[in-house]
Specification:
By secondary structure, this protein is α/β, with parallel strands linked by helices. It is built from eight helices and twelve strands. It has helices at about 20-35, 45-55, 70-80, 95-105, 115-135, 165-175, 180-190, 200-210, and strands at about 15-20, 40, 60, 85-90, 110, 145, 150, 160, 180, 220-225, 230, 235. Strands 2-1-3-4-5 form a five-stranded parallel β-sheet, sandwiched between helices. Helix 4 (about 95-105) links the parallel strand 4 (about 85-90) and strand 5 (about 110). It starts with 13 loop residues before the first strand and ends in a 10-residue tail after the last strand.
Length: about 250
């Protein structure tokens, strides 16, 4: 029997595949198992939630269109409760869903129909990045400097903020750990309110995460369902400026 590549050199990567189409799950599961991975497949977010305590996956491959709780809602919840990497896989072609999912904390995105070889490569790449980050130092303090317009990650990576990013971080940093409504954040960005189809705030957050992608620490900005966003961990060096809200 031929040993799958990577199988002898690495421990088995534990993957949960979440998709309600059995015709999709079965061949993908078989392929990943042949490639040396330990795979558990389920058909809904509810089944995923039930499986998590016993299986403890390294990577979750998550469809967006699911019966019951949607994949997008699951990303938001999982990012706050589970340390696994999250790969979204969906037949949806809209860029809004991709941006929204990434802003909620998903790590990668694949469109169906997908090539299982690309999925395998993405799983191994994400697993490698997560494994490299695992021994990171316990220090997780993020530093915001209003005077310099900079946000600094715990590992020292510092970025200069745009006006929109500066306004958003200022509002969130006033009360760390307290959710700020989307309407307030939209007003600080020069908008009078958040329309149901307006994704400009999600785009802003996605771009900010991308600017910090080189850091070993993910920005601890979390979405709060039906409210807005919360930034639980941040220190401010200097005085916070007043943000004009029209």
């Amino acid at each position: 029997m031929t040993t799958p590549p990577h199988a002898a050199a690495e421990p088995a990567i534990k993957v949960i595949l979440v998709d309600d189409e059995e015709d999709f799950r079965d061949p993908v599961t078989r392929f990943l198992r042949r490639r040396g991975m330990t795979v558990h497949d389920v058909g809904s977010v509810e089944e995923l939630t039930a499986a998590l305590p016993a299986f403890a996956p390294d990577i979750i491959v998550l469809d967006l269109n699911l019966p019951g709780e949607s994949g997008l809602d699951a990303v938001e919840r999982l990012r706050g409760t589970c340390g696994a990497g999250i790969i979204m896989a969906t037949a949806r072609r809209g860029v809004d869903d991709r941006i929204h999912g990434l802003s909620l904390g998903a790590d990668s995105y694949l469109e169906k129909p997908l090539d299982v070889r690309e999925l395998e490569a993405m799983i191994r790449s994400l697993w490698g990045r997560l494994a490299a980050r695992a021994p990171a130092a316990p220090e997780t303090v993020w530093l915001f400097s209003p005077e310099d317009w900079t946000l600094t990650a715990p590992d020292g990576l510092s970025i200069r903020l745009s006006t929109a990013e500066y306004n958003m971080i200022t509002l969130l940093a006033r009360k760390p750990g307290v959710a700020v409504s989307r309407d307030i954040l939209f007003q600080a960005l020069g908008k009078t309110a958040s329309g149901p189809e307006d994704r400009s705030l999600d785009v802003l957050i996605s771009r900010l995460r991308n600017k910090l992608a080189a850091s070993e620490h993910a920005l601890p900005l979390k979405a709060v369902r039906s409210v807005g966003y919360v930034l639980p961990e941040i220190q401010v060096r200097g005085a916070l400026k007043d943000i004009f809200v029209p």
